[in-house]
Amino acid sequence: MSALVEMVDIDKSFPGVRALNKAKFELLAGEVHALMGENGAGKSTLMKILSGVYQRDAGSILLDGQAVDIASPRQAQDMGIGIIHQELALMRDLTAAQNIFIGREPRRMGGLLLDEAALNAQAATIFASMNLKLDPRVQVGGLTIARQQMVEIAKALSYKSRVLIMDEPTAALNDAEINELFAIIGRLKAEGVGIVYISHKMDELKRIADRVTVMRDGEYVGTVPAATTPIETIISMMVGRTLSNETPAFPDVSAAPVALDVRGLRRGREIRDVSFSVRKGEILGLAGLMGAGRTEVARAIFGADPIEAGEVFVNGEQVRISAPQDAVRAGIGYLSEDRKHFGLATGLDVRNNIALASLSRFTGPAGVLRESAMRDTAQGYIRQLAIKTPSDSQEARLLSGGNQQKVVIAKWLLRDCEVLIFDEPTRGIDVGAKSEIYKLLNALAAQGRAIIVISSELPEILRLSHRIAVMCEGRLTGFLPGGASQEDIMRLATMRPSAVAETEPNRKTA
Amino acid sequence: MDSISTETKPGLIAGIRTSGAFHKLLAFSGLIALLVVFSLASPNFMQTQNVLAILQATSVNGVLAIAATLVIITGGIDLSVGTLMTFCAVIAGVILTFLGLPLPLGVLGAILAGTAAGLVSGTIIAKLKVPPFIATLGMMLILKGLSLVISGTRPIYFNDTPGFTQIAQGSLIGSIIPALPVPNGVLILFLVAAVISFILGKTALGRYTFALGSNEEAVRLSGVNVDRWKIAVYALAGSVCGVAGLLIASRLNSAQPALGQGYELDAIAAVVIGGTSLSGGRGTVLGTLIGALIISVLANGLRILSVAQEWQTVVTGCIIILAVYADILRRRNL
């Protein structure tokens, strides 16, 4: 029997990055095939090539043994290849049903008009098959992330795909929703659909995957049966070495003075009574699922978003923060998860980016900037943080992700920030640069700075944090010591106080 | 249906919040308030003749604003609607006056000229990836220049085409019901509004118009030919500008090649006052219609109260800022 999909020797480069190097992948009908690897390993890129979003540079794709070219998402859909993207690709202003059938709306009057009734009815049928209680006419923008995810899944199902690619579909789902999803996957599998399942969660693989293919740095590592391969083996394939079980030595900071103290932070359903403190020299990890409110808390502390209640103390003194400039004055720096949008002026050069938060320091009489002083400072940080750039006058957008992150770090160091909040510090950074960023964070903590790290990657949280705070649905559900287990974190991250309340009424009437 | 939790139920509040109906309500009550104030201030304001004059004055800007609405819902902007209107009027002049062809051909030619210009703008934006602001700014100047070149910088009169002034100034309704001499220009405005409303609400083109403004990347990933639909929206907007060109030419009994620049700002103002989001994904023709009416009512009312033209402009500016600020307040509170 020939495979449903076979991808052979796929190459793909983006400007400055080699994303895939002779990658391969095989999918059988009726199989759940997990695709694993660290962030930046090339999983999503490979699947975007299969679903027509990207074009391969070299290699071949066989569908039912026939070589094919997949030039566009539309063509992929016509071939029966559906994908659920990691970043939700929904139109917020349209309804659930309109989203599902975008591009394939049922028509009436000889194709002239959209048949809204049929559209809603068909969407309702899909929701019913998923055992999902959702009004097809509801606007997607008003739904929770989990429900938006369900709409995405419904959309993929609506294509009657033979190949279904799911890119981290459970990232934002709770246990009940995950069970629901797995039941749907089981049904599809029985119907002979081949499912590619990208996930970081090891326990999920054991539950649903038949085979596992591991990728590393854009290359194929190997394919193993899911049931009989120990998790340790899969992990060592992913990281390229056997993981030593030694827990990193975390410094004892219990005697150090408290640098940041947050008390009773609140805003609506996003931030519900959040209190915590960070000591000088401590790295506090902030863990939780997507939408748990970690970024919201960080932005609230930083004054980027308003709060309803709460107090912030820096070095024991209460500070009133109503705008980012207040936070910066108090010595709090925030490195946002989206560097390109919020952290970096990508069009400016490295020198100006580093000086951006401290321009007054470089302003001479009559408001003229002292470029030479700025240059010296920037070059100092370029050496100190080992920023790879031809010169300090290089435009920031031309740097790699890791070096862009270092520029942002330099900006806040120059500003003398005592408290640094890192939101997904290694997102979009390749594996090699990651460990450099980790080293840098450890060094900053050793210098006595208080550091908060927000990350969706549990290994990252575990590797860095001296102490871990876990959030779920806007609440802090608990603190864990450094080196806690992934399971402990997941348990706290899925502690939903409202889960009971939300499912109760449904059960009664269903 | 009762098993649906409150979160997913499109209740009255949620419906109003998301559809922009609240803003329409706001704009609508603003319009009513203006009408009340002006009719109390002057007995002449609510005279049938004055009301019809207001409507007639709204017709050109209203039609242009509807064209702008289409583009703005996609998340784009069209700065060329004003000079495109003039260009279409000049084309009608060429066909009817220079070539002496029959009236229906002139009407058709003007509208097709609008469609063609829209196709060009849309193609520049979709295929060459030039930002809409720049692409339509360029088109605005190109069309202005072409109008002057084609007409030899002189107005083209329609004296040889006797039916031409009837397009906007005649009254089909008046000929049936003499007590209600609604000018055809007003009729055409409402007709255009109805047709575009229908396209936005009921057709695939309309659906993609909203989808593009909401999340263009998501539409592309859904396998929709984004470029083609975007071009189609600009082409439709261009056709609507063609109608506006006929209206203004008919009212002036001439194509004035120097006219047109500045009209795009009035049109965008009407769109914004009507609650259409400049960031795209949201908007209604009805809102735009109300927005255009507010601008004309203000101009007319202030003139009746003998407020100087200069101050009318100041007031309109304030209204635009107030309308958008009200929208921001609404979003913050809900």
TrEMBL record, chain A:
<keyword id="KW-0762">Sugar transport</keyword>
<dbReference type="InterPro" id="IPR003439">
    <property type="entry name" value="ABC_transporter-like_ATP-bd"/>
</dbReference>
<protein>
    <submittedName>
        <fullName>D-ribose transporter ATP-binding protein</fullName>
    </submittedName>
</protein>
<feature type="domain" description="ABC transporter">
    <location>
        <begin position="248"/>
        <end position="498"/>
    </location>
</feature>
<feature type="domain" description="ABC transporter">
    <location>
        <begin position="5"/>
        <end position="242"/>
    </location>
</feature>
<dbReference type="InterPro" id="IPR003593">
    <property type="entry name" value="AAA+_ATPase"/>
</dbReference>
<dbReference type="InterPro" id="IPR017871">
    <property type="entry name" value="ABC_transporter-like_CS"/>
</dbReference>
<dbReference type="GO" id="GO:0005524">
    <property type="term" value="F:ATP binding"/>
</dbReference>
<keyword id="KW-0067">ATP-binding</keyword>
<keyword id="KW-1278">Translocase</keyword>
<comment type="similarity">
    <text>Belongs to the ABC transporter superfamily.</text>
</comment>
<keyword id="KW-0472">Membrane</keyword>
<dbReference type="InterPro" id="IPR027417">
    <property type="entry name" value="P-loop_NTPase"/>
</dbReference>
<dbReference type="GO" id="GO:0016887">
    <property type="term" value="F:ATP hydrolysis activity"/>
</dbReference>
<dbReference type="GO" id="GO:0005886">
    <property type="term" value="C:plasma membrane"/>
</dbReference>
<keyword id="KW-0813">Transport</keyword>
<keyword id="KW-1003">Cell membrane</keyword>
<keyword id="KW-0677">Repeat</keyword>
<keyword id="KW-0547">Nucleotide-binding</keyword>
<dbReference type="InterPro" id="IPR050107">
    <property type="entry name" value="ABC_carbohydrate_import_ATPase"/>
</dbReference>
<dbReference type="Pfam" id="PF00005">
    <property type="entry name" value="ABC_tran"/>
</dbReference>
TrEMBL record, chain B:
<feature type="transmembrane region" description="Helical">
    <location>
        <begin position="21"/>
        <end position="41"/>
    </location>
</feature>
<dbReference type="GO" id="GO:0005886">
    <property type="term" value="C:plasma membrane"/>
</dbReference>
<keyword id="KW-0472">Membrane</keyword>
<feature type="transmembrane region" description="Helical">
    <location>
        <begin position="133"/>
        <end position="152"/>
    </location>
</feature>
<dbReference type="GO" id="GO:0022857">
    <property type="term" value="F:transmembrane transporter activity"/>
</dbReference>
<protein>
    <submittedName>
        <fullName>Monosaccharide ABC transporter membrane protein, CUT2 family</fullName>
    </submittedName>
</protein>
<keyword id="KW-1003">Cell membrane</keyword>
<feature type="transmembrane region" description="Helical">
    <location>
        <begin position="231"/>
        <end position="252"/>
    </location>
</feature>
<keyword id="KW-1133">Transmembrane helix</keyword>
<feature type="transmembrane region" description="Helical">
    <location>
        <begin position="81"/>
        <end position="101"/>
    </location>
</feature>
<dbReference type="InterPro" id="IPR001851">
    <property type="entry name" value="ABC_transp_permease"/>
</dbReference>
<feature type="transmembrane region" description="Helical">
    <location>
        <begin position="53"/>
        <end position="74"/>
    </location>
</feature>
<dbReference type="Pfam" id="PF02653">
    <property type="entry name" value="BPD_transp_2"/>
</dbReference>
<feature type="transmembrane region" description="Helical">
    <location>
        <begin position="107"/>
        <end position="126"/>
    </location>
</feature>
<keyword id="KW-0812">Transmembrane</keyword>
<feature type="transmembrane region" description="Helical">
    <location>
        <begin position="285"/>
        <end position="305"/>
    </location>
</feature>
<feature type="transmembrane region" description="Helical">
    <location>
        <begin position="172"/>
        <end position="200"/>
    </location>
</feature>
